[in-house]
Write a structure and sequence with these properties.
Blueprint lengths: L17 E5 L9 H8 L4 E7 L1 H6 L4 H20 L4 E5 L2 H12 L3 E5 L4 H16 L3 E5 L21 H10 L43 H6 L4 H12 L6 H4 L12 H6 L4 H13 L8 H23 L21 H9 L5 H13 L4 H14 L4 H11 L5 H12 L14 H8 L4 H6 L19 H6 L9 H17 L6
Parallel strand pairs: 1-2, 1-4, 2-3, 4-5
The structure holds a DNA duplex (11 and 9 nucleotides).
Protein name: Deoxyribodipyrimidine photo-lyase
Family: Belongs to the DNA photolyase family.
Organism: Novacetimonas hansenii (Komagataeibacter hansenii)
Length: 499
DNA sequence: TTTACTTTGGG
DNA sequence: CCAAAGTAA
C-alpha cells in the first residue's frame, strides 16, 4: 500500500495523459496526486466517479450527498480557473476507471489513498487491473496525518489506546508541510470515448428535489476549498484562544467546524495542523495558546486514530470490538428511536442536538456524545441504529470516525468502560450550556422558559409548563441509567478480558 | 471527554 | 447547611 514505483511505461508517447482520480480530496492545494500529475509534464485529465450502488450501501448518506454536490461544483470551478476540466462519471469505478484509462490512452492513473474497507478493496483491484493493462497506478498519502500502518507498537501491533498511539505517532515526526496548489494545469483534450460515461454533476442527482429538505444545510454551509480555507483561518487567527475549554460549549462558536471539509478533503489535516501551529507558535502570544493548540492537534489525531483502528479491524464497521456486547439485550424500541431522531425525547439538550443535526447536517461534538449516550444507555438502543442515523444525516459522516466513536460511547469499543459514560443529559446541559442559549436556539418552544429549569422543563412552575408545548421525558433518567448498568453487568458476569 | 454517593470541614 | 474533595462503579 505505501507508495510503489511501478514499471515505467517507456513506450507511452510523451503526450499520453495522466488521469487524476479525485475521491475524498476535493481540493487543489496539498493534493499530492494532482501535484504529481502536473509535475509529470503530461496533459492532465481530472476525473470523479460517483457510484450510486456503492454510495447507497456505504456511508454516503443523504446529507453527505448534498455536500458532495456542492463540493464537486466548487472543484469544477476551481479547476476551470486552472485551465482544466473535472470529468464526472457515474457507475462502478472498478469497471469504469480502467476502461476510461484505456480509452484515454493514459500513461498513468494517480489518486490519494483512502483507508475504509470498501475503498481499499476497490482501489487494490483497480491498481491490479491497471498494472495488468500496462498503465502506471500511483497512490499518495493525503487524507491523514499518519497512515495507519506507520504507527505500530514495538511488537508491530496496532495500538488500542489513543494516548499511546498519539505518542508513537508524534514521535515519528511532524506531518509534512502542505504542497501549494499548482499554478496551472495543462489539461488534456477530452477523449471522445469519455462522452458516453461522463454525465456531469447535475445527472448525479445528489441534491434532494421533492421534497427539498436541504434549506437548512444551504443556510449553514458552503462546500468548497475556498470556504474551507476561510473556515480554517477564521478558526486559527484568534490563536485558538480558549479552545481547550470552550470546545465543549455548544452555545459558543468555539469549534473549527472543519469536519465536513476534512471528510471531503476540501482541506487536508496537514494544512489544518500547520495553520494551527503557525498561528499559535508564530503569534505574539508566545506559549500562551500551547494547551489549546495541543488540544486541537489531538482532535486531528482522534480522526487518524479512528482510521487506524478500522484499518486494523475492518469488521468494526458493524461488529462490536468487545464481543461480550454481542449478548447485549438491546431494547431497540421503535418509538424511542423515532422520538430520538425527531428531537422529541423531552430532554432539551438531546432534542436540541437532534434538531440541529436534522436542520444543518451537523451537531456539536459534546452534544453528539450526549445524544449517543442517551440512545445507547437510557433508551438501550443498539449503537448501530444511531450510527446509521448519523451516517444519513451528518454532512461530515465518515465511516471510521462514526463507527469508532459510536462504539466508544456505547461502551463496546476500544478504551471502553461503559459505566463511565452514562451521561446525565440534565447535568451535561447545565455544565456546558449554562445559560440555555443552545437549547433555546434549537428548541424554540423553550424560548420563554427561565434558565433555572430550561434543561429540565418538568421541574418548572406549573403555570410556566402549561404555556409550553414540549413533550414530557420519554424515559426516567434514574431508571434508564439503572437499566443500562444492569444490562452491562449481565454481560460482565460472562467471561471477558478486562474491566 | 462521568456520575452518584459519602465524607469532611467550615459556616 | 453547603461546598469541596474523595471514591466506587
Amino acid at each position: 500500500m505505501p507508495s510503489v514505483d511501478d514499471a515505467p511505461s517507456a513506450d507511452m508517447p510523451a503526450d499520453a495523459p495522466v488521469i487524476v482520480w479525485f475521491r475524498n480530496d476535493l481540493r487543489l492545494s496539498d493534493n499530492p496526486a494532482l501535484s504529481h500529475a502536473v509535475a509529470s509534464g503530461r496533459p492532465v485529465l481530472c476525473l470523479f466517479v460517483h457510484d450510486p450502488q456503492h454510495a447507497r450501501e456505504h456511508a454516503l448518506g443523504a446529507a453527505a450527498q448534498w455536500w458532495l454536490d456542492g463540493g464537486l461544483r466548487a472543484l469544477h470551478a476551481d479547476l476551470a480557473r486552472m485551465g482544466a476540466v473535472l470529468h464526472v462519471a457515474c457507475g462502478d469505478a472498478l469497471a469504469l476507471v480502467p476502461r476510461m484509462a484505456a480509452q484515454a490512452g493514459a500513461a498513468e492513473v494517480v489518486w490519494n489513498r483512502r483507508y475504509d474497507p470498501l475503498g481499499r478493496e476497490t482501489d487494490t483491484a483497480i491498481k491490479a487491473t491497471l498494472k495488468h493493462a500496462g498503465v502506471i497506478a500511483h497512490s499518495f498519502a493525503a487524507g491523514v496525518l499518519y497512515e495507519p500502518w506507520t504507527v505500530r507498537t514495538r511488537a508491530g501491533d496496532a495500538f488500542r489506546v489513543f494516548t499511546a498511539w498519539w505518542r508513537a505517532a508524534r514521535a515519528s515526526g511532524e506531518p509534512l508541510p502542505p504542497l501549494p496548489a499548482p499554478g496551472h494545469v495543462h489539461a488534456a483534450v477530452s477523449p471522445g470515448a469519455w462522452e458516453g460515461c461522463c454525465v456531469g454533476i447535475d445527472a448525479l442527482r445528489l441534491v434532494p428535489v421533492s421534497p427539498d429538505w436541504a434549506g437548512g444545510l444551504r443556510e449553514a454551509w458552503q462546500p468548497g476549498e475556498a470556504q474551507a480555507r476561510d473556515r480554517l483561518h477564521h478558526f486559527v487567527d484568534g490563536g485558538l484562544g480558549g479552545y481547550a475549554d470552550a470546545r465543549d460549549r455548544p452555545d459558543l462558536p468555539a469549534t473549527s467546524r472543519l469536519s465536513p471539509d476534512l471528510r471531503f478533503g476540501h482541506i487536508s489535516p496537514r494544512q489544518a495542523w500547520h495553520a494551527a501551529v503557525a498561528a499559535v507558535r508564530g503569534g505574539a502570544a508566545g506559549g500562551m495558546g500551547e494547551q489549546d493548540l495541543e488540544k486541537f492537534l489531538s482532535e486531528l489525531g482522534w480522526r487518524d486514530f479512528a482510521v487506524s483502528l478500522l484499518y486494523a479491524q475492518p469488521e468494526l464497521v458493524s461488529c462490536n470490538f468487545r464481543t461480550e456486547f454481542d449478548a447485549m439485550p438491546w431494547r431497540n424500541d421503535a418509538r424511542d428511536l423515532c422520538a430520538w431522531q425527531q428531537g422529541r425525547t423531552g430532554y432539551p439538550i438531546v432534542d436540541a442536538g437532534m434538531r440541529q443535526l436534522w436542520r444543518t447536517g451537523w451537531m456539536h461534538n459534546r452534544v453528539r456524545m450526549i445524544v449517543a449516550s442517551f440512545l445507547t444507555k437510557h433508551l438501550l438502543c443498539d449503537w448501530r441504529m444511531g450510527e446509521a442515523w448519523f451516517r444519513d444525516t451528518l454532512v461530515d459522516a465518515d465511516i471510521a470516525s462514526n463507527v469508532i466513536n459510536w462504539q466508544w460511547v456505547a461502551g463496546c469499543g476500544v478504551d471502553a468502560a461503559p459505566y463511565f459514560r452514562v451521561f446525565n443529559p440534565v447535568l451535561q446541559a447545565r455544565r456546558f450550556d449554562p445559560d440555555g442559549t443552545y437549547v433555546r436556539r434549537w428548541v424554540p418552544e423553550l424560548a420563554g422558559v427561565p434558565t433555572s429549569c430550561v434543561h429540565a422543563p418538568w421541574t418548572c412552575d406549573p403555570a410556566i409548563r402549561a404555556r409550553v408545548a414540549y413533550p414530557s421525558p420519554i424515559v426516567d433518567l434514574q431508571g434508564g441509567r439503572a437499566r443500562a448498568l444492569a444490562a452491562w453487568k449481565g454481560l460482565s458476569d460472562a467471561p471477558h478480558e478486562d474491566a
